[in-house]
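Page 42, continued from yesterday. The earlier attempt failed because a stray header line got pasted into the input along with the sequence. Redoing it now with the clean sequence only.
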Amino acid sequence: MTEPTPSPPAADAPQDRNAATIAASPVVRSAARWFWWIAGLSLVNTIMTLSKADSHMVVGLGMTLVSDVLFGASSPVGFAIDAVALGFFVLMGHLAQRGQLWAFCLGIAVYAVDALVYLKFEDWIPVAFHALVIYFIFRGMQALRQGLAAAN
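This time it went through. Structure tokens are written below.
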């Protein structure tokens, strides 16, 4: 009776280990956490809008702010838009923390598009803050990219 031969490890297993190791870098982890800050402060913005406050956090999402003003976060449409937007950034933060380079790229792209909402209304402080946050996230993405390149 022959023993079954163990299957070889998946081709991407070393890449996953490298990404996880490099993702432990403080620069990468800090950059990935910005996605969570975006989601959390956007949630604060939603609560402030629902409570009729006349201010908002500059790091929050323009898309949730517009959704809250147009639909109200308590309406099904407003709630759905807010939930999808916040969930997206929570997920990107989680995946970026695990060393997924594409999560950094997609998160940056969506956040850059979100800045266009503030740009449309000429609200310059949130536009500037979006640019600053994108810079910090980009630094972490570059650190991850360089670490992955060096590991291969």
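Notes: The mean pLDDT is 86.
Reminder to self: strip header lines before submitting.
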